[in-house]
């Protein structure tokens, strides 16, 4: 069966006055139908750019390259803008972080949702309207019919995000990318939106690429996880495996930062990862994490670690892998 | 929305009143109107008689209120030169000026908006530079010189267009270009800035993520938001254009209000001058008011703030 | 835009202001041309080969040196009354610059004072000043200037006064907003707390910060004044003959323009270049003093 999304060796470079910024380096991942993959990392790790690369929505200056980038077997890296615009909102869709600004304030909700259908489907206006109302209702928006005539500023953040999700799923795409969809919402809403995404995924058989910096979300929602640091994927695997026995020092550090009620003694200090993210300008020498790694050895400065396979679909980039006990 | 409009209207009326006050006192205070009416051969007694007859010896405040009363009833007095009612004169000439003004703004919009959009789509490209150059040149060029050059090259050398009079639509082409060219830079720059801002907005990214075609994204989503300030600017620029019609109409001998104003100023025909200042100011005030209201209506967020 | 790299790299972030396209070249060009015109004005008596008022009807309408009948004696030709065009051009520079500078000084004082008062005191003072501004903006400037000048009979001084009394609006707006911004800054509150007088605060805190904006507005209004004077003189209601105002030269050239086009191209080009230079200078100042750049 063709994988839904295949990415191999994705790189994004941005020319700056001070040099070339290697924002995304050698990222490889794959998603199957009906599967949820979480892409985890701190700010600046390149998660969003990776997502934008898939949709080809990168800023003008950025340059994307990949050994392989395919959606259901179709090569995306060579696709024309015309073909991409046919695919976007249709076979692949994306939900963004900021629901407050993601909708056009000058047009009604109905207008913005209907235009998605009009772009990709031949449907009578009535049928389209019915479908829109149906979807709005399905994502949990009360009084769905009335919303069509409303403007974005009349809706709360949570509702707007639901509208976004509905809008992007109107044409029942195969792949949905969600870039930190709940970060801008308060905690109660977060749980609701996540639950909604999971429900929709099951119903539509979507592949879901969920980007987040919150490990709690990963645990709740995903089957597989890829950990990103400094533009690279440093560890990838099933959620159970990674959470139970993380192999990369960074992953371990991340997990140690998350206080788990019951497992952490009261008064014990919260885990941190000392240091800051290295500059991504210029070529990388050695392991990007070595400055902050408690296990770094001399060799880490010289050789850039390639992903070491740890099982089917599991891998981690670390020179010490053989010596680090499970 | 209604309260908002009412407030704006009240302010506009107050401004109009003040303008009428200014134009009235400007004329009355600066020279002897009675002497002008009497003519160069009049004796002192004649002048006195006229002064009394026209009521110029009454207190200024009384004169003003009297004049205001007459004006509100549509009686703007008689032209000293033409010996006809001023109102009739002005109304006769208004269509020409309004046509010129409209055509000029159409030219300015037709040139400025597309250039602004294209410049924003390709910043720092050749089209951006071209737009910039046109904008810079347009602001520095004296409009009357531009008009003369157009007459010289388009009218005389190439014989493409007539150079004076206001009979056919052709007579309006060069004047409209001359007047419109001055309004173009501001419109172009505002469109460009607005588009740049709109294009970098999140909702544009959403529109693209939906797979909408490029043209639609630009025109439907970006321009719609970028154009809002341009609407207000257009109204304001129309006001300036109407004011600048004095010079352009005079050069091209177009029979409009501006030309009438010029003739009247030269002939010391004060009632006419006063009336035209009032009319043009009034038009400008109305335009600004319309622009404010249009703005509020176009931007749903402003409408909400205004209490629609 | 979302946080992080993706946010900072949005297309909008890379949009350079239009002034950046010219970059420093504009500023340099502007400064150079302005300097040349200033020199023309200052050194006019030295540089002019003829007296600009000297009429000689036997030498009317001689074309400039680059045309067939041109001569070295009159490098830029002569006008309809036989006056040397180069000399008139040089002396005309004096008038343009004089008008530009004087008008800006007067309107600058009026506008800035009003603006600072409105911005500093706010409330009713602000409302009154805003109303004044709206009224002023509702007046068709050219028309009012024309009428005003006509009523008092045109002359250089009258033109300067009338324009100075009309062109203060931008100064007002700029100073008002600058004052408002500064008013609320902490160090003004601190100064007030220590008991510094209002005037002292205005002078020592508000003015220096407003200087950049003031310069930019001053250049804009200077260019505006020069163009307006040219228009007024062109219509016969500004500077009176025989003064060599460039606008007046254009007006006097009209009857002859079909056969002697240089009579309008030369003064017109000078006006254009001068105004262009001043605009570019202003843009340059704005660009150089606002490193964030305004697109």
Helix and strand layout, with pairings?
The complex is a heterotrimer of chains A (326), B (308) and C (295).
Chain A: E1 5-16, E2 19-31, E3 36-40, H1 47-55, E4 63-65, E5 68-71, E6 74-75, H2 81-87, E7 92-95, H3 109-120, H4 125-138, H5 144-147, H6 157-169, E8 175-179, H7 187-204, E9 207-212, H8 215-221, E10 224-229, E11 232-238, H9 239-244, H10 249-257, H11 299-302, E12 308-311, E13 314-316
Parallel strand pairs in A: 3-9, 3-10, 7-8, 8-9
Antiparallel strand pairs in A: 1-2, 1-4, 1-5, 5-6, 10-11, 11-13, 12-13
Helix pairs in contact in A: 3-4, 3-6, 4-6
Chain B: H1 2-30, H2 33-38, H3 44-54, H4 60-72, H5 86-121, H6 126-140, H7 143-157, H8 170-199, H9 202-209, H10 214-252, H11 257-266, H12 270-298, H13 300-306
Chain C: H1 4-8, H2 11-14, H3 18-22, H4 24-42, H5 44-47, H6 85-121, H7 123-138, H8 141-152, H9 156-166, H10 169-183, H11 186-194, H12 198-234, H13 246-253, H14 262-289
Helix pairs in contact in C: 4-6, 4-14, 6-7, 6-9, 6-10, 6-12, 8-9, 9-12, 10-12, 12-13, 12-14, 13-14
Structural summary, described in words:
The complex is a heterotrimer of chains A (326), B (308) and C (295). With 326 residues, chain A is α/β, with parallel strands linked by helices. Helices cover 32% and strands 23% of the residues of chain A. Chain A contains 11 helices and 13 strands. Chain A has helices at residues 47-55, 81-87, 109-120, 125-138, 144-147, 157-169, 187-204, 215-221, 239-244, 249-257, 299-302, and strands at 5-16, 19-31, 36-40, 63-65, 68-71, 74-75, 92-95, 175-179, 207-212, 224-229, 232-238, 308-311, 314-316. In chain A, β10 (224-229) and β11 (232-238) form a beta hairpin. In chain B, α6 crosses α8, α7 (143-157) crosses α10 (214-252) and α12 crosses α13. With 308 residues, chain B is mainly alpha-helical. Chain B is flat. Chain C has one domain (24-289): MetI-like (MetI-like fold, Orthogonal Bundle). In chain C, 71% of the residues lie in helices and 0% in strands. Chain C is mainly alpha-helical and 295 residues long. Chain C starts with a helix and ends in a 6-residue tail after the last helix. In chain C, α12 runs parallel beside α13 (246-253) and α13 runs antiparallel to α14. Mean pLDDT of chain C is 80; it is low at 1-19 and 291-295. Chain C has helices at residues 4-8, 11-14, 18-22, 24-42, 44-47, 85-121, 123-138, 141-152, 156-166, 169-183, 186-194, 198-234, 246-253, 262-289. Classes of the chains: A alpha/beta (326), B mainly alpha (308), C mainly alpha (295). At the A-B interface, α2, α3 and α6 of A face α9, α10 and α13 of B.
């Amino acid at each position: 069966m063709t994988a839904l999304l295949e990415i191999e060796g994705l790189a994004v470079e941005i020319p700056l006055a001070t040099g070339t910024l290697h924002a995304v380096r050698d990222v490889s991942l794959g998603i199957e139908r009906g599967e949820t993959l979480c892409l985890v990392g701190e700010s600046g790790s390149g998660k969003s750019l990776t997502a934008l690369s898939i949709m080809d929505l990168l800023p003008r200056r950025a340059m994307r390259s990949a050994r392989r980038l395919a959606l259901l077997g179709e090569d995306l890296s060579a696709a024309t803008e015309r073909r991409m615009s046919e695919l976007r909102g249709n076979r692949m869709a994306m939900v963004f972080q900021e629901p407050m600004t993601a909708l056009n304030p000058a047009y009604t909700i109905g207008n913005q949702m209907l235009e998605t259908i009009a772009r990709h489907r031949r449907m009578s206006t009535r049928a389209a309207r019915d479908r829109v109302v149906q979807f709005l209702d399905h994502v949990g928006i009360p009084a769905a019919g009335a919303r069509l005539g409303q403007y974005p500023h009349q809706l709360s953040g949570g509702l707007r995000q639901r509208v976004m999700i509905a809008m992007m799923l109107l044409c029942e795409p195969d792949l949905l990318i969600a870039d930190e969809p709940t970060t801008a919402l308060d905690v109660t809403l977060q749980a609701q939106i996540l639950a909604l995404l999971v429900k929709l995924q099951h119903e539509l058989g979507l592949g879901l690429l969920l980007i987040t910096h919150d490990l709690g979300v990963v645990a709740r929602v995903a089957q597989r996880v890829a950990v990103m640091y400094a533009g690279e994927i440093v560890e990838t695997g099933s959620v159970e495996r990674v959470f139970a026995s993380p192999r990369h020092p960074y992953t371990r550090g991340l997990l140690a930062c998350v206080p788990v009620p019951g497992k952490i003694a009261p008064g014990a200090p919260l885990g941190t990862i000392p240091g800051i993210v290295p500059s991504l300008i210029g070529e990388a020498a050695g392991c990007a994490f070595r400055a902050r790694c408690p296990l770094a050895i001399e060799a880490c400065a010289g050789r850039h670690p390639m992903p070491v396979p740890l099982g089917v679909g599991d891998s981690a980039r670390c020179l010490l892998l053989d010596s680090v006990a499970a | 929305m209604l309260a908002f409009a009412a407030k704006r209207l009240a302010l506009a009326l107050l401004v109009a009143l003040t303008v009428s006050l200014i134009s009235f006192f400007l004329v009355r205070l600066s020279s002897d109107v009675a002497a002008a009416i009497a003519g160069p051969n009049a004796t002192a007694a004649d002048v006195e008689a006229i002064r009394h007859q026209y009521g110029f010896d009454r207190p200024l405040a009384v004169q003003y209120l009297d004049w205001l009363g007459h004006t509100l009833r549509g009686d703007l007095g008689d032209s000293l030169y033409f010996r006809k009612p001023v109102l009739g004169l002005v109304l006769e000439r208004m269509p020409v000026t309004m046509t010129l003004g409209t055509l000029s703004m159409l030219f300015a919009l037709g040139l400025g908006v597309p250039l602004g959009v294209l410049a924003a789509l390709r910043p720092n490209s050749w089209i951006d530079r071209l737009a910039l150059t046109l904008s810079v040149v347009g602001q520095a060029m004296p409009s009357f010189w531009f008009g003369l050059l157009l007459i010289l090259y388009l009218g005389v050398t190439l014989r493409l267009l007539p150079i004076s009079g206001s009979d056919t639509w052709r007579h309006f082409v060069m004047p409209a270009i001359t007047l419109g060219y001055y309004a173009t830079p501001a419109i172009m720059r505002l469109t460009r800035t607005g588009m740049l801002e709109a294009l970098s907005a999140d909702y544009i990214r959403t529109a693209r993520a939906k797979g909408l075609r490029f043209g639609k994204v630009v025109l439907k989503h970006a321009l719609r938001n970028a154009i809002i300030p341009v609407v207000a600017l257009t109204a304001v620029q129309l006001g300036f254009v109407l004011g600048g019609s004095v010079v352009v109409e005079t050069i091209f001998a177009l029979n409009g209000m501006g030309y009438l104003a010029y003739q009247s100023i030269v002939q010391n025909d004060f009632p006419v001058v006063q009336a035209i200042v009032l009319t043009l100011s009034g038009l400008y005030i109305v335009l600004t008011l319309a622009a404010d209201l249009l703005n509020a209506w176009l931007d749903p967020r402003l409408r909400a703030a205004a209490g629609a | 835009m979302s946080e992080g790299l993706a946010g900072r790299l949005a297309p909008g972030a890379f949009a350079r202001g239009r002034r950046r396209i010219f970059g420093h070249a504009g500023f340099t060009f502007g400064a150079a041309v302005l300097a040349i015109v200033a020199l023309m004005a200052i050194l006019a008596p030295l540089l002019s080969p003829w007296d600009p008022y000297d009429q000689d009807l036997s030498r009317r309408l001689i074309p400039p040196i680059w045309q067939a009948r041109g001569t070295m004696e009159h490098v830029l030709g002569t006008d309809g009354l036989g006056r040397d065009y180069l000399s008139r051009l040089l002396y005309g520079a004096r008038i343009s610059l004089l008008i530009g500078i004087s008008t800006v000084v007067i309107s600058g004082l009026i506008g800035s004072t009003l603006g600072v008062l409105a911005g500093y005191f706010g409330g009713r003072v602000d409302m009154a000043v805003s109303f004044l501004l709206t009224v002023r903006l509702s007046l068709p400037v050219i028309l009012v200037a024309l009428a005003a000048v006509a009523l008092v009979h045109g002359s250089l001084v009258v033109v300067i006064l009338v324009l100075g009394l009309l062109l203060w609006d931008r100064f007002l707006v700029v100073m008002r907003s600058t004052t408002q911004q500064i008013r609320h800054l902490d160090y003004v509150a601190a100064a007030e707390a220590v008991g510094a007088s209002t005037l002292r605060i205005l002078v020592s805190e508000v003015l220096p910060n407003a200087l950049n904006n003031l310069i930019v507005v001053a250049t804009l209004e200077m260019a505006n004044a020069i163009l307006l004077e040219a228009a007024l003189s062109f219509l016969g209601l500004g500077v009176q003959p025989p003064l060599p105002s460039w606008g007046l030269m254009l007006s006097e050239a009209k009857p002859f323009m079909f056969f002697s086009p240089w009579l309008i191209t030369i003064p017109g080009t000078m006006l254009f270049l001068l105004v262009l230079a001043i605009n570019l200078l202003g843009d340059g100042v704005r660009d150089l003093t606002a490193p964030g750049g305004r697109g």
